[in-house]
Write a structure and sequence with these properties.
The complex is a heterodimer of chains A (245) and B (260). Chain A is α+β, with helices and mostly antiparallel strands and 245 residues long. Chain A has a domain at 72-226. Chain A has 3 helices and 5 strands. In chain A, α1 crosses α3 (225-244). Chain B is built from 10 helices and 2 strands. With 260 residues, chain B is an all-alpha fold. Chain B has one domain (19-259). Chain B has helices at residues 2-43, 54-59, 64-87, 97-119, 121-127, 138-148, 153-183, 190-194, 213-216, 218-259, and strands at residues 185-186, 203-204. Classes of the chains: A alpha+beta (245), B mainly alpha (260). Chains A and B meet through α1 of A and α4 of B.
């Protein structure tokens, strides 16, 4: 009897050990594959990192150039910026403001901001404000408005966004800063009033924020220069290389 | 002497046998490749028949450029993943094959995403979330499981190529239909994908005063897709009917012969 019990016990133990062996073997294989895949991805990531940074920087510069004439400033605008967190700018995310300077004097500030009440959520935009408070230009960076109707805020689809250029706030509650349906000076789109209304409101809020906080903003020290300095040296080299090619 | 001759002749027959065998294997391989091509491009097309990966298929095909971008990315991923899955098929235990396939596919998608971010920044931005979503494209894991895990590397890569091409062609067709109807253009924004020289590719097919919204929005994609599937089925039916008619004719001839 005892012998039998023993054999069944050993059998079950044997089975168990087989199972655990299979499990541990599979675990090892899976871990090996995970490590190999991670290595491959990190290798590609390492190889493309500089190139991606250049692309992002170029994209940023292209956007900045479209709202501030490149001839109006002479500093490295992409690396001269301050970080702002203010609920007036539409959301609680950190916003970046790029400072354009000509021989040390601030000419204009390009701020990213958010218009919170779009037809389909937030509309992220960047706007350049001249030091005298006039708008130098606005570009929408990200939105989820209806294609064909609300997406006319993109410069690719319509030049409506240029109607902000050279506009100014006369007072903090300037009633002209609205769509023409609300007796303002900006056109709405046929079939889409909510999108332009949200954007006009967002630009107005950002402008108000800039006007009332101008001195504080301009006194803030540069926030993105130091961290990026080392990498920009290499990226600039690379930009020059690619330009030469 | 005779001893020497005998093995020589047997060697020759062996050689010819081997050559015959090789020829047979080659013919078989050729037939297999042909079958793979037909399956991927027509009979078992991932877009039209399997209806896999519909989410990117319907979402990004509003312009030809986007469709081409996603088609190429998917093609690259499916070839690489099929080849890799096939190469490692002997070392992967059956129980854990799915997580390993997912790992491999995810790794390739991430690599393609990084490369596109680095070299075709514009198209990377306009494809947005649908590029990483290639991971969840069932067509890819479907091929890995159904074909690549059981067949040699070359055939698997070829199968991936054909399936990817089949998918890309459907993407392109939908893109062409929707871009012409919606915006009246073709290859709008091709410079985002291929660089500045490609802006000459842009064709103004017809002048539209306002965009035809239905074609740009997702419902237009569904309708266009439905029409494409109907078209494919109609062609299949036509071919089938024609074949039936042919065989009937043959039978008739036999009867005529019998009567006379």
């Amino acid at each position: 009897m005892s012998d039998k019990i023993d054999t069944t016990q050993t059998k079950s133990e044997h089975k168990k050990s087989q199972l655990t062996m299979a499990v541990s073997k599979n675990t090892k294989i899976l871990a090996l594959f995970a490590i190999a895949c991670t290595l491959a991805v990190s290798l590609v990531s390492e190889l493309t990192r500089d190139r991606i940074k250049i692309q992002e920087q170029q994209q940023l510069l292209r956007t900045l150039h479209s709202i501030i004439e490149p001839s109006r400033y002479d500093n490295d605008i992409a690396n001269d910026c301050i970080m702002i967190t203010a609920p007036e700018l539409g959301s609680n995310n950190v916003k970046t403001a790029y400072i354009a300077k000509k021989s040390g004097q601030v000419v204009a500030v390009a701020m990213t901001s958010t218009a919170p009440r779009g037809y389909n959520g937030n509309i992220d935009f960047i706007m350049a404000i001249n030091i005298d408070g006039t708008v130098s230009g606005v570009r929408v960076l990200k939105h989820q408005e209806t294609p064909g109707l609300g997406d006319k805020v993109e410069i690719r689809k319509s030049n409506w966004i240029n109607s902000f250029t050279d506009k100014k706030m006369l007072s903090e509650s300037d009633s002209r800063w609205a769509v023409s349906k609300d007796n303002g000076m900006f056109d709405q789109f046929t079939g889409a009033t909510i999108t332009p209304r949200a954007l006009v409101q967002g630009v107005k809020n950002t402008l108000n924020y800039f006007n009332s906080n101008k001195s504080i903003l301009l006194a803030t020290p540069n926030a993105c220069g130091k961290a990026v300095l080392a990498s920009t040296a290499t990226t600039k080299l690379l930009i020059n290389e690619t330009a030469n090619e | 002497m005779s001893n020497e001759i005998a093995p020589q002749s047997s060697n020759e027959t062996e050689l010819t046998d081997k050559a015959d065998e090789q020829a047979a294997v080659k013919a078989k391989l050729k037939a297999e490749y042909k079958e793979l091509a037909i399956q991927g491009l027509w009979k078992n097309n991932p877009g039209l028949v399997q209806l896999l990966g519909l989410c990117p298929l319907l979402a990004v095909t509003s312009t030809v450029t986007n469709a081409l971008g996603l088609g190429l990315a998917t093609l690259l991923v499916i070839i690489c993943s099929n080849a890799t899955v096939s190469a490692i098929r002997h070392w992967v235990p059956k129980e854990i094959r799915i997580p390993i396939f997912v790992l491999i596919i995810a790794a390739f998608v991430t690599c393609v995403q990084l490369l596109m971010n680095a070299f075709t920044y514009g198209i990377y931005q306009s494809l947005g979330i649908f590029l990483p979503l290639i991971v969840t494209n069932c067509a890819i894991i479907g091929r890995a499981e159904a074909y690549a895990s059981k067949n040699p590397v070359k055939q698997s890569a070829f199968d991936g190529l054909m399936m990817g091409l089949g998918f890309a062609i459907i993407l392109l067709l939908l893109g062409v239909i929707r871009e012409i109807l919606g915006q009246g253009t073709l290859f709008d924004g091709a410079n985002l994908l291929f660089g500045e020289w490609a802006s000459v590719l842009r064709i103004e097919v017809m002048q539209l005063d306002s965009q035809f919204l239905l074609a740009i929005l997702p419902p237009g994609a569904f309708i266009a897709m439905g029409i494409l599937i109907a078209l494919k089925n109609a062609i299949d039916n036509y071919i089938k009917n024609k074949k039936v008619v042919d065989t009937e004719q043959v039978i008739e001839r036999v009867r005529v012969n019998f009567d006379s």
